[in-house]
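Recap quiz, item 2
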Amino acid sequence: MPFAVYSDPVVFAQEDREIFHGPIWHFLGLEAQIPEPGCFVLAQVGKTPIILVRNRDGDVSALVNRCSHKGTPLAFVPSGKVDQFMCVYHNWCYDLSGTMLSAAFERGVRGKGGMASTFKKEEHGLQRLRVHRICGLVFGTLSAETPPFEDYVGPEFVANIQRVCGRPLRILGQYSQKLPSNWKLYIENVKDPYHASILHAFNGVMKQDRLTMEGGIKMGARGWHHISYSKMHTDTGGEVYSTGALRNAEIEAYGFGLRDHSMTDIWDDFGDNVTMTIQTIFPNFVLQQLRNCLAVRTIVPKSTHEAELMWIAFGYQDDDERRLQGRLKQANMMGPAGLIAMEDGMIGGLVQKGIAGDLDKAAVLEMGGHGIEPIPGSRVSEGSVRGFWTGYRTLMGL
Amino acid sequence: MNVNVFQEQVAPAEARQLLAAYTYILDEGPLGDWPTLFTETCLYRITTRQNEERNMPLSIMLCDNHAMLYDRVEAVEKANIYEPHYYRHVLSDSRTLRTTADSLWLETSFICVRTMLDGRMTLFAAGKYVDEVVALAGRCLFRSKTVVLDFSQIDTLIAKPL
């Protein structure tokens, strides 16, 4: 993988055009964020600012957040509730589905001035994205070429969304991280089960997720997406973790172990003994089940060397107090201070430092061979990372 | 330790000494002393203003007893990987929110500057502490400490408590 792909501004601009404005489904938000008509949240598809809003009929619209007049954003706070969208600059107004309603002084004053006779409001509605709703998740696309969502991700991927999000969701909170790296270094990291119990020593030592557990990787349609899963109760023994040339072995020698066990007091939410699923949808969406800690993540490119990682944690509306508190406790493992997740915030920036100055060189991507076919029963593979690059090359025409 | 024995009145000046000791430990170390400033059953959490205003219960860090505080210290010192850095906290005066029979509630603004070993310095955090302070055998301790960050976009990661 050439290092230049993480650093070249020309590549970055091309990604915005070919990937984010191309035939992809991009996560925009959760329906639970916009419960009532007029409730909106902001999102971003590549560089393009988006408003996700609940309509009067209960449907949702995804609109480009840009007044048709001068291009001013119609909403500039991250969320809110409105009757209509009114631009602050010249008070052009749009309804919740983006239809233009009025412009200030449209007919001038006392018969003088006003918009040209050729101006037609119906031609100046907001640009709308095609939207797909599934189990409270909302995806949108800017391209007319994007295949239907089910075909885009594949049936197993619809099934896992239904598994994790199949009951009414309750949002627990959100935050984000500014990552000092290219967005692709983060998504590669998420798609790489090889590192999870190594970089994140907490995972390995606390036996939360190890490569010695029963688990595997599933690849979505065309290999672009992936699901990594494991069953922590099936760990077959971690000799390699205690004796190998791994940091894990050094830490185990210290006798590291939790004093408080409320964080690891887990239950089976889905009746299938699967304690961990990480599902990605190309290019930049993650659905996370770490034991009972559930979240969606979106990685938003900002520049060649910066990205924003947005987290929304959720539980279910029918969670009792014990389960709610359990999820909140387990959230110690995710996010910017996550006992497991924190290293993911810095590792991309570290790689970016290491590759600087030699962009003609390349990374090695050979764990598990060269293909994208999953190895049955094994996660000692970077096949899912290669799957991301398969989608990337297709859209970038490489 | 019986948690119901805090019957001494807490003077604001003594509570301020506890705050000074707290930021001294975070800025100068050792981090292993951090849990000793809390009662056995306690609450320590970091959250954001955005989540507070929306009544969202998610925390960035959440510990509700001594053992969890020590677990966090041990993870930060032994398991987690991050670029080593120093904190420097600066606090405002404290405002008394209320006094109860055995505790004092204080609110204090803070900023925290983070300096990496290569010299890079960032204004890393700004927000407020909402603290419940009790006295046990003449010594002030936090029964609860909520760190409310003004911002919700964290630069890279938060390893050590704020």
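DSSP finds ten helices and 17 strands in chain A.
The domain at 25-133 of chain A is CATH 2.102.10.10 (Rieske Iron-sulfur Protein).
End of item.
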